[in-house]
Write a structure and sequence with these properties.
Elements: H1 6-33, H2 53-65, H3 68-77, H4 88-121, H5 124-147
Length: 150
């Protein structure tokens, strides 16, 4: 629809640009006033009720299984790595398992590192700096989207 209608494309583009600029300026304004755009959760308090490992694991599995892009990714990418002499199903399951294992290991590393730097990043000065940087980048994206040609 967006490629067929120039008006629909322009409305979406300007709406998205305005929204990005609004979010970025709001973050910059909040950082200038000395308060974070989003209040921080206390370090020892869970983010949501029932925030445990099993609940997060179940949510992640369900999200990926219901995401049609994951299936399209595996169907488009894996066949080129399956040898002609191998069983496509068995080798595909093997490659999928390796991908899931590597993704899980990488996510675990990110979680451990994030937990270690969490106290530093929740300091008011660090949050203001992050809000300034993020607000500037988001505002820049919005301005670039507004001035970009189709």
């Amino acid at each position: 629809m967006l490629t067929a209608s120039h008006l629909a494309y322009e409305v979406l583009r300007w709406g998205g640009a305005g929204y990005l600029v609004w979010i970025g300026l709001r973050m910059l304004w909040a950082a200038r006033r000395g308060q974070p755009a989003e209040p921080a959760q206390p370090i020892d308090e869970p983010i949501a009720a029932g925030n445990d490992l099993l609940n997060g694991w179940r949510r992640g599995i369900l999200t990926n299984l219901l995401n049609p892009k994951m299936g399209a990714f595996y169907v488009a990418l894996l066949p080129q790595f399956i040898p002609a002499s191998a069983s496509p199903f068995a080798f595909g399951v093997l490659l999928t398992g390796i991908h899931i294992l590597l993704g899980t290991a990488w996510s675990a590393v990110l979680v451990v590192l994030a937990r270690r730097v969490r106290a530093v990043l929740q300091r008011p000065a660090a949050r203001r700096l992050l809000d300034r940087v993020t607000g500037t980048v988001i505002t820049g994206f919005g301005i670039r989207l507004a001035i970009a040609s189709r």
